[in-house]
Amino acid sequence: MSALNFDIIFNGDNWEPYKEYILHVIESTGGKELIEGTSIRPASSPNMDPFSESNTPSKRPTPPEIVSPRVMEWDRLDNETKRIILESCDDTRKQELEQIPTAYEMWDTLRSKYDIAKAANVGSSSSEYDSGDSDSNLEVGAWSGPGGRVDMAEHADLPPFPLEIRLKTISPGSETDHWEQNLDSIMALLDGHDIPWSVIHLGSLDEEATMVLIHGEGGDWNKDIIETELRASVLPKRLFPRLEFLHGEVMKAGALGAGAYEPFAFCGASIGVQGLDWSAGTVGGYLESGGVVYGLTCHHVALPTKRVESSSKGKTANTDYPSYLDDFQRFHKAFDKTNGEIIIAQPSCSDHRDTIESCKIDQVAKFDLFQSNKLEYEMLGSPVGPKADRIDALGTSLERAGRDIERLQQTDRKFGHLIASSGYRIDQPTGNSMDWAIFRLVETRGGSNRISHIAPRIGWSCLKGSPEIDFNAIADPEIGEKVIKIGKESGVTFGIIHSVRDGVSLPENGCKSKEWCVCRYGPRRSFSEFGDSGSFIFNTKLQVVGILTSGTDNEMFTYMTPIKMVLRDIKEKTGLDLFISGKKSFVTRPQGL
Questions:
Q1: 264-347+416-587 — its CATH code?
Q2: pLDDT per residue over 296-353, tens digit each?
Q3: Helix (H, G, I), strand (E, B), or coil: what is residue 82?
């Protein structure tokens, strides 16, 4: 494997004590050839020699973050840009870029080992975690690196690494069986206390079964009392050694992002209700029934609540709204076409606004550059040759920017008409929440059940081959299964279906639910972000297994509803026998419902 020459940046000032450990982990991971020529430097001083003794911090260090910009920048590129770059590369460079997914796996191993070391207070005389436990089996205080044993005892009291990263998925066994059998009882016990809980999740922390309880502010409750009652009734310590309490909540709201303006919208495109600035989500894909094409997304995308708060994003959307939402308020009922007309726009209003604002900022920058060059050249007399050509080019670019803004402002973004939605409710046989909406595409727009080129990745043979991949099948989700999703906010991400369902308390549902949980898989911290609601979730055969409905505000967990359950519910409510179209792309010619 040829070298990718990773540029490892320590995102923090106190990085020097961790350098030797990183080098040791790189070698032990087996990535020596892959990262041959890698540079290691702090983010604040790009030209600093990382091996200079003068760079050692004088104060006691705190664990820095490490990132790999080369890999992460490639991951953030849109699929079309990746395709263009790959087509323009020579064979050697193309091979390097296509190896990035393999590099991801090695990088994730590096990150995991580094995280464990930080979480265990590497270099400290104590291995206490933030939970207060002190029975860690990890050896701390020193390690053997490439240059021999490196004593880190002088760097004591390193703070622990966040639980959000240390928590892993748990393998099926007696713990998961017990959890599934008693999840209703756990939720009932919590409901007996005045605790505003939103999620109860079973995971693995340092190879121990751990229940994580995510809760909001307020309430008259006592952690010790709740833990004692859980231990005595449903969570024996022999099976579940650890209980963790975290602050947070489950969010259904969409966030803002960049929208695309294409006649054919691929799966993962940005959508929202026309006229609503706070409505934003993702169209998962397209389905057919009787020759009519429908888009599928979430109910809360098509009928958003009036007020959306996102503490993690620091945004609150509070604005005027169309009067037809008066009947829905916060606790939404199901929608059908007799309730009125709701138009779905693509991209969403917020994404459309952000795109125009970004173009205006670019236009101002171009104008300033044009004026400064023009003034400089006029002071020198009439510009000729290259100088004149530069002024002409800047003027042309400025005119083009103005035309682009005008074109965007005049774009007809009407994408479809809402036909039906689930409302916020619980599927009684399964305990899973229902959160779906279908809209019929307008005649002037089309959709495509194709996934643009995604770089190959270990275990994902379905992503190899043509630049665009069709999908036309559905399947049941399986525990421990690797999955992929394409969302309008976070793009392409990989995850793994958790071995047990989570207990979830959403005020919109009006009752508790049991949700399929997807955890991150790979170097990313999260599988989804706000704005990805409605995304299709695929297995390694590129079959649709679910639709993304919500996630925790700390981006630890993502929740989905199985696709077969959604299609069954749609048929029961509307009579439509929907199937995922195998057509590559299509323009709808609706004949009515």
A1: 2.40.10.120
A2: 998 888 877 654 444 333 333 333 444 544 444 443 567 766 666 788 887 777 777 7
A3: helix
Residue 53 is classified by DSSP as G
- Rounded-to-integer distance, Cα 140 and Cα 346, Å: 53
Please, what is the Cα angle at 200 between 199 and 206, to 5 degrees? 120
Q: What is the pLDDT of residues 358-404, one digit of tens each?
A: 777 777 777 777 777 777 666 666 555 566 667 777 777 778 878 77
With 0-12 / 13-18 / 19 or more C-beta atoms within 10 angstroms meaning exposed / middle / buried, residue 35 is buried
- CA distances to 357, 448, 485, 540 from 545, in Å: 37, 18, 10, 10
Q: What whole-number distance in Å separates Cα of residue 165 and Cα of residue 186?
A: 25
**φ, ψ at 445 (rounded to 5°):** -120, 160
Check if the beta carbon of residue 209 is closer than 8 Å to that of residue 243. Answer: no
Q: Which own/partner pairs from 467-473 qualify as long-range (CB within 8 Å, at least 24 positions apart)?
A: 467/83, 468/584, 469/542, 470/582, 470/584, 471/285, 471/538, 471/542, 471/543, 471/544, 471/580, 472/580, 472/581, 472/582, 473/541, 473/542, 473/543, 473/544, 473/580
Structure tokens at 342: 């709701």
Contact 43, 139 (CB under 8 A): no
Residue 128 gets the label, from left (phi > 0), alpha (psi -120 to 50) or beta, of beta
Amino acid residing at 129: Y
For 282, the token pair is 């993702």
497: β partners: 518
For residue 393, count other CB atoms closer than 10 A to its CB: 12
Q: How far is CA 132 from the centre of its chain?
A: 30
Summarize pLDDT for 486-524 with one digit per residue, the tens: 888 778 888 899 999 999 987 766 678 999 999 887 655
Adjacent-strand bridge partners of 247: 215
Amino acid at 426: I
Locate the domains of the chain by residue range.
7-161, 166-238, 264-347+416-587, 349-410
Check if the beta carbon of residue 468 is closer than 8 Å to that of residue 451: yes
Spatial CA neighbour of 281 closest among 329, 333, 355, 350:
350
- Please answer whether residues 487 and 171 qualify as being in contact, where contact means their C-beta atoms are separated by less than 8 angstroms: no
* 173 phi/psi in degrees, rounded to 5: 175, -160
CA-to-CA distance for 27 and 19, rounded, in angstroms?
Answer: 13
- Backbone dihedral region for residue 271 (phi beyond 0: left; psi -120 to 50: alpha; all else: beta): beta
How remote is the C-alpha of 463 from its chain's centroid? 19
How many Å apart are CA 416 and CA 431, to the nearest integer? 31
Omega of the bond leading into 64 within 30 degrees of 0 (cis) = no
